[in-house]
Design brief:
Layout (H helix, E strand, L loop, with lengths): L1 H19 L4 E2 L8 E4 L4 E3 H20 L9 H26 L21 H19 L3 H26 L15 E2 L11 H23 L8 H17 L10 H7 L3 H22 L12
Parallel strand pairs: 1-4
Antiparallel strand pairs: 2-3
Helix pairs in contact: 2-3, 2-5, 3-4, 5-6, 5-7, 6-7, 7-9
EC number: 2.5.1.145
Membrane topology: Multi-pass membrane protein
Keywords: Cell inner membrane, Cell membrane, Lipoprotein, Membrane, Signal, Transferase, Transmembrane, Transmembrane helix
């Protein structure tokens, strides 16, 4: 995934330079491809690699976090979460996409398993992950909110890689950009219009910025001793980032009329309750007395 990150960074710099020479940038001219590795008999896509890297890096970082004093879980709980959260991300993401973005899939359930054809919803994956956390917390008699705090710190890894993979796939492009946007791009399937590379906007805000904020809060402050503060920061931060970027992202074709009629995209409507919940967690965490810093981790 470091290759993906460095490639996308180089693309952004190259794109800005090319734009200065006049004319919109064409995604095809950047030499990118949805395929990360092609062995002839097997092709590994960036999107699959992004999911894999996000989950593995999140598991590694969670294991590192719970070795700190006062962790709400032990390594065996982290191992269970790794398994159940992966199921929650995949199943919840696919079902969420069908419910929120492509209801026609529900009439043809055999198509739900065709993950290779694309179509995953972050909000669906989030709900699947919350259910996975609830199950592991209930079985292990863990504090649900504190476990959510620790998981929330790890989520931006996957968001960053996932949005970069969207860019490498040339999908989920942005709205039409004016001449004052020198980095605007012409994407395949998006017509001859120069558009915002909204995938990179999302990678920066939902991924990189949110990642830095949460890592600093966990490692450089006492935030983890205030239950709900980290997960509240994540929910509110992601909601604000997604709500903002949706103004630059082209709505899904099947939901374009819905966005025009309601004034907001489906992604924006889904982030409103998320922001409200995040704000609630934050306020509750701030007004309540912090936990003692001498607590021991569960065995």
């Amino acid at each position: 995934m470091l290759s993906l990150l460095s490639t996308a960074t180089a693309l952004a710099v190259t794109s800005a330079s090319a734009a200065g020479a006049g004319g919109p940038i064409r995604w095809e001219d950047l030499g990118v491809s949805p395929i990360a590795l092609d062995l002839g008999f097997f092709a590994l896509k960036w999107y699959s690699l992004a999911y894999l890297a996000g989950i593995i890096l999140g598991y590694w970082h969670l294991s590192k976090m719970i070795r700190q004093p006062g962790a709400p879980m032990a390594q065996r709980h982290a191992d269970d979460l790794f398994f159940y959260a992966t199921l929650g991300i995949i199943l919840g993401g696919r079902l969420g996409y069908a419910i929120f973005y492509a209801p026609e899939l529900l009439s043809h359930p055999q198509n739900l398993v065709k993950l290779w054809e694309g179509g995953m919803s972050f909000h669906g994956g989030l709900m699947g992950t919350v259910l996975a956390i609830a199950w592991v917390a209930w079985r292990g008699r863990l504090n649900f909110v504190r476990v959510c705090d620790y998981i929330a710190v790890c989520v931006p890894f996957g968001l960053l890689f996932g949005r970069l993979a969207n860019f490498m796939n040339g999908e989920l492009w942005g709205r039409e950009a004016g001449p004052d946007v020198p980095w605007a791009m012409v994407f395949p399937g998006g017509g001859p219009i120069a558009r915002h590379p909204s995938q990179l906007y999302e990678a920066g805000l939902e991924g990189l910025v949110l990642m830095v904020v949460l890592l600093l809060l966990f490692w450089k402050s006492r935030a983890r001793w205030r239950p709900g503060l980290l997960v509240g920061t994540f929910a509110l931060g992601y909601g604000l980032a997604r709500f903002t970027v949706e103004f630059f992202r082209e709505p899904d074709a099947q939901l374009l009329e819905f966005a025009q009629r309601s004034g907001l995209s489906m992604g924006q409507w889904l982030t409103i309750p998320m922001m409200a919940i995040g704000l609630g967690f934050l306020l509750n965490a701030v007004v309540r007395k912090p936990l003692s810093t001498t607590g021991a981790a569960p065995a």
